[in-house]
Amino acid sequence: MMATTKHPMLETGCARCGNDLSVSLMSRFNTDVLCMNCEALEREHPAFAAAEETELLAVRSADYNFRGVGLPAGYSNWASQQRRER
Length: 86
Ligand SMILES: [Zn+2]
Prior knowledge:
Layout: H1 8-12, E1 25-26, E2 33-34, H2 36-42, H3 48-60, H4 75-84
Antiparallel strand pairs: 1-2
This protein binds zinc ion.
Zinc ion binds at residues 14, 16-17, 19, 34-35, 37-38.
């Protein structure tokens, strides 16, 4: 990545939709930095509860470098379908 005077996250925007990150939140599935909308959407995914629980267990066992369970298969298709339905 090129050196820049701007904060890299502000430069690239949300990892999933590219929106500006006035508020940036970390995905529970991986290390993506998300806008509020994408974070809220992620919470509605059927695999979210399991991902959150897995992360909690990792933190409890002092695995602070846990990087998430990974994005569920087909997540981006699921997410764009949810966006269309609103
Ligand atoms: Zn987003």
